[in-house]
Write a structure and sequence with these properties.
The protein is built from 4 helices and 8 strands. The model has no long low-confidence stretch (mean pLDDT 93). Helix content is 28%, strand content 42%. The N and C termini lie far apart (60 Å).
């Protein structure tokens, strides 16, 4: 039986938060496409590498969904990613060693579905805010 868009979305969120990459991979199509700041990758193995990398870098990673809007085959999600940077974060610009610092970063995710499976993830988040929280760039001083 094919999952609805809402069911696939909820299963994806639950399996990510449970750090169950096998379960997370079950709700994506083989030809899934991921677009995120500085990243574009295709296929289920690339999907597992991308999201699995976040779970390795932030072993206590958690997403909190504040709001989600559904159409027939699209979900637009607003949420917050949080976690403690305890592992290497792989980025398009190289590897970021663990800082031990916590992050809480809002994001918007546009997810598309086909036959109850995720076929694309378009993730937008403030990389500068995350880098500031990790202590990798200076935090701006308040205006005088």
């Amino acid at each position: 039986m094919t999952m609805t868009t809402r069911e696939a979305f909820e299963r994806g969120t639950d399996t990510f938060n449970a750090h169950d990459m096998d379960g997370f991979a079950e709700v994506v199509a083989d030809d899934v496409v991921i677009v995120a700041p500085g990243v574009r990758c295709e296929g289920k193995p690339a999907f597992v590498d991308f999201y699995g990398g976040w779970l390795q870098a932030f072993p206590d990673a958690h997403i909190e969904v504040q709001d989600v809007h559904f159409t027939e085959d699209v979900a637009v999600e607003e949420g917050t990613f949080s976690g403690t940077h305890e592992g290497v974060l792989h980025t398009p610009n190289g590897e970021v060693p663990a800082t031990g610092r916590a992050v809480s970063v809002p994001y918007v995710h546009v997810l598309r579905y086909r036959d109850g499976l995720h076929v694309s993830f378009h993730l937008v988040f403030d990389r500068l805010l995350m880098l500031e929280q990790l202590g990798l760039v200076p935090t701006p001083s308040p205006a005088a």
